[in-house]
Design a protein that fits this description.
Elements lengths: L1 H9 L8 H28 L21 H9 L1 H5 L1
Length: about 80
Amino acid sequence: MAAEFESQLTDSSYKDLSFAERLDLLATAEWNRRQTSRVNWFICNAKFSTPSATVEKIEYYEDRQLDKSQMLRFSTCQYVNDG
Protein backbone atom coordinates (compact mmCIF):
# COMPACT_ATOMS: atom_id res chain seq x y z
CA MET A 1 0.00 0.00 0.00
CA ALA A 2 2.92 2.31 0.69
CA ALA A 3 4.10 2.11 -2.91
CA GLU A 4 0.62 2.90 -4.20
CA PHE A 5 0.38 5.82 -1.77
CA GLU A 6 3.72 7.18 -3.04
CA SER A 7 2.36 6.86 -6.57
CA GLN A 8 -0.72 8.84 -5.59
CA LEU A 9 1.42 11.57 -4.05
CA THR A 10 3.44 12.04 -7.23
CA ASP A 11 0.48 11.89 -9.66
CA SER A 12 -1.50 15.15 -9.79
CA SER A 13 -4.65 13.44 -11.10
CA TYR A 14 -5.33 12.05 -7.60
CA LYS A 15 -5.47 15.51 -6.00
CA ASP A 16 -9.10 16.05 -7.06
CA LEU A 17 -10.29 12.86 -5.33
CA SER A 18 -11.70 12.75 -1.82
CA PHE A 19 -9.96 10.93 1.01
CA ALA A 20 -12.47 8.07 0.81
CA GLU A 21 -11.94 7.68 -2.93
CA ARG A 22 -8.17 7.63 -2.56
CA LEU A 23 -8.38 5.16 0.33
CA ASP A 24 -10.63 2.95 -1.79
CA LEU A 25 -8.05 3.01 -4.60
CA LEU A 26 -5.30 2.09 -2.13
CA ALA A 27 -7.30 -0.82 -0.74
CA THR A 28 -8.20 -2.06 -4.23
CA ALA A 29 -4.58 -1.89 -5.35
CA GLU A 30 -3.48 -3.87 -2.29
CA TRP A 31 -6.19 -6.48 -2.85
CA ASN A 32 -5.14 -6.84 -6.51
CA ARG A 33 -1.48 -7.18 -5.50
CA ARG A 34 -2.31 -9.91 -2.98
CA GLN A 35 -4.47 -11.81 -5.47
CA THR A 36 -1.74 -11.65 -8.11
CA SER A 37 0.85 -12.84 -5.60
CA ARG A 38 -1.41 -15.71 -4.57
CA VAL A 39 -1.99 -16.85 -8.15
CA ASN A 40 1.74 -16.61 -8.89
CA TRP A 41 2.46 -18.69 -5.77
CA PHE A 42 0.03 -21.39 -6.89
CA ILE A 43 1.53 -21.46 -10.39
CA CYS A 44 5.06 -21.68 -8.99
CA ASN A 45 4.18 -24.50 -6.58
CA ALA A 46 2.26 -26.43 -9.25
CA LYS A 47 5.60 -26.96 -11.04
CA PHE A 48 4.05 -26.66 -14.51
CA SER A 49 6.41 -27.50 -17.35
CA THR A 50 5.60 -24.11 -18.92
CA PRO A 51 4.25 -21.76 -16.22
CA SER A 52 3.70 -18.90 -18.68
CA ALA A 53 1.44 -20.95 -20.98
CA THR A 54 -2.00 -19.49 -21.70
CA VAL A 55 -5.03 -20.53 -23.72
CA GLU A 56 -4.51 -17.53 -25.97
CA LYS A 57 -1.04 -18.76 -26.95
CA ILE A 58 -2.16 -22.21 -28.16
CA GLU A 59 -1.01 -22.83 -31.72
CA TYR A 60 -3.65 -24.64 -33.75
CA TYR A 61 -1.49 -26.25 -36.42
CA GLU A 62 -3.16 -28.72 -38.77
CA ASP A 63 -1.05 -31.67 -37.61
CA ARG A 64 -2.02 -31.11 -33.95
CA GLN A 65 -5.71 -31.73 -34.73
CA LEU A 66 -6.93 -29.39 -32.01
CA ASP A 67 -10.49 -28.12 -32.12
CA LYS A 68 -10.33 -24.42 -31.24
CA SER A 69 -13.99 -24.17 -30.17
CA GLN A 70 -13.61 -27.18 -27.88
CA MET A 71 -10.42 -25.76 -26.34
CA LEU A 72 -12.19 -22.45 -25.69
CA ARG A 73 -15.09 -24.33 -24.09
CA PHE A 74 -12.63 -26.17 -21.85
CA SER A 75 -11.02 -22.87 -20.86
CA THR A 76 -14.32 -21.60 -19.40
CA CYS A 77 -14.69 -24.76 -17.24
CA GLN A 78 -18.38 -24.89 -18.18
CA TYR A 79 -18.03 -28.66 -18.53
CA VAL A 80 -17.63 -28.84 -14.73
CA ASN A 81 -21.02 -27.16 -14.20
CA ASP A 82 -22.60 -29.34 -16.90
CA GLY A 83 -21.47 -32.45 -15.08
